[in-house]
Amino acid sequence: MLTWAKAQLPYRVYKSYSAAGGNLLAAGMSFQAVFATFAAIWVGFSLTGIFLADRPDIRRAVIAFINAQVPDLIRTGGPIDPKVLESMTSFGWTGGLAVVVVLYTAINWLNYVRTAVRTIFSLPQSTVNYILLKVYDLVLALIYVIFVLLSATATVGLTKLSGLVFPELGIADKSGIGKIVFQVIGLFVVFLFDTAVLAAIIRILSGVPIPWRILRNGTLLGGFALMALKVLGSYVLTRPESNPLLASFTVFIGLLIYFNFASRIYLLATSWVAVSMRESGTAMQDLGWVVPHRHHVN
């Protein structure tokens, strides 16, 4: 039985992940992610308070989307009170300072993730010009923010559309069936978002041309694992009273543990892709750059 298990791809993936120091790399990623998240939310809602002051529905959708990514991060009595965010309608000197902090932490996080991903691929550190790489990471961070806003806007549109369609089908918005449909759609949106982000992280930050079939398999598995983690995290992080030993440190420790598991999933998915490439005989060509490269696969 043990011999059979060692012959399977998941075992070889985990072995490669462990050999590269995956757990240590994930710990560094999660530490950077905690600070980047709080800074990004502060800046993001300061800006949306200015430009989306008359669109509270989009602001609420953004909060819901963030809570889907980091379980119940923004809630009354939670790590971040939504009333504080909703009252942010100006961008003073504190906002300017927060911009500097969020740019620094976001770029540092992306740089650390790049190092971790390339380590899993057994590649040296990128030789791209330091300044150019930082500018590129800044662009990636801005694209991610735009992606979140577009996803939240789409959620608002789907909600309004369901308000028109459900009554025609004889389904009340607040009925049991309506709630189930919304939950299923919400999980599907989160799954698509996570899979897309994971694919971008592996392909862009590695700087390696990856066949679509191999990238697809690794990111789909990672997307499912992340979705399961978020469902479980939503249950655990909203019940701090069930663990009195961590009560006074629930916010920081809970988020750090959550990000640590998420980072492990990111790197395990990366390891799945790397091992699959090696075993399929696909050349692991280091382009020395971070732009995706076309790779034709028959």
Automatic annotation (TrEMBL):
UniProt keyword annotation of Amino-acid biosynthesis present: no
InterPro entries: Virul_fac_BrkB
Membrane topology: Multi-pass membrane protein
Gene source species: Aurantimicrobium photophilum
Record localization: Cell membrane
PANTHER family: INNER MEMBRANE PROTEIN YHJD
Protein name per the record: Inner membrane protein YhjD
Main location: membrane
